[in-house]
Amino acid sequence: MKRFRRLSEETGQWCRYVLKRSWYWYKKIAESPGAAISLVLLLLLVLMAVLAPAISPRDPYATYIGPRLSAPSWQFPFGTDVLGRDILSRMIYGSQLSLVVGILSAAFSLVFGVILGSISGFYGGKVDSVLMKVVDIWLGFPPLIFALAIVTILGKGVNNVIMAVGISGIPRLARIVRAQVLSVREMSFVEASHAIGAPSWRIIMIHIVPNVLSSVIVLSTLQVAGAIISAASLSFLGMGAQPPTAEWGLMLNEGRAYMRHAWWMTVFPGMALFITVMAVNLLGDRLRELLDPRYRRSRN
Measured between alpha carbons, how far is 197 from 64 in angstroms, rounded to an integer? Predict the structure, then answer.
């Protein structure tokens, strides 16, 4: 009983700490009106994705539930597509896929970018030279073209899109992490760790990575926006999500043949992409102002 009570008290303290820190960061972010609006929009988008089965007015995959190519009305606020499907319901469900692809792709890029950049910057010498030459060649390919080539090799599908977009984002993160590690590794606490014989992996994990984490958080936030756009672009080109999946890029592709007569098929998914990416970028810029001391000094 005492053990359970102690566990409950520790859990309560942890929850209070998380809430306190969350409120602190919300107030810091809310000092910028654009970032505050972006944060609210992103929270609403996350809620919409999580609650999609509950709030979706109709089945997004049911065909001919309304007239074909019906214009926006009270019954169908965003209209219907060529198969009579409700576009509003498909957009709500499409938010799930866009967020999942964006977050997982950014996480993939983040993990391998940090590993590659940390190893290159910490060891230097031939290791750094070889790795950075590979990264430079990697950067020579436009990210979308590189992701398209990977999807062509691996095959169509959402899982392959996540991997392709994640791989295409690694070199940029690796370059920036390496630059951060090069400055951190010269600091006195890293030299002290070398002096007492700490293994390299421990120095990287305990001393190097936490000190470049602020820049990494900002970069990963911006990477999410790029990943959402890249995934939607691949779906638009027919290499990502496949019909009848509800995905914003695929909805744009389905509506492009009817733009003259049914503008709502492309305008509403396009607006959803624009608002989401703009909100992520504005929030990322605000996080950069708060977490990057060099950026703050340059603004002052």
Answer: 70
Rounded Cα gap, residues 117 and 172, in angstroms: 10
Two tokens at 109? Answer: 């890029």
pLDDT of 90 reads: 93
Provide CB contacts within 8 A for 270, sequence distance 6+.
252
Name residues whose C-beta falls within 8 Å of residue 165's C-beta, 6 or more positions apart in sequence. 101, 105, 109, 143, 147, 227, 230, 231, 234
Over residues 87-142, the pLDDT tens digits come to: 999 999 999 888 888 889 988 988 898 888 888 888 878 888 888 888 888 888 88
> What is the fold of 33-48+77-299?
MetI-like fold (1.10.3720)
153-184 residue pLDDT tens: 888 888 889 999 999 888 888 888 888 888 77
Tokens of 43: 């929270």
The pTM for the full model equals 0.83
Q: What ranges do the domains of the chain cover?
A: 33-48+77-299
**125 exposed, middle or buried (CB, 10 Å; 0-12, 13-18, 19+)?**
exposed
2-33 pLDDT per residue, tens = 555 665 665 666 667 667 766 776 777 777 78
Distance in angstroms (rounded) separating the CA atoms of residues 245 and 229: 17
In the block, residue with structure tokens 């970018």: 113
d(CA 139, CA 198): 34
Cα 210–chain centre separation: 21
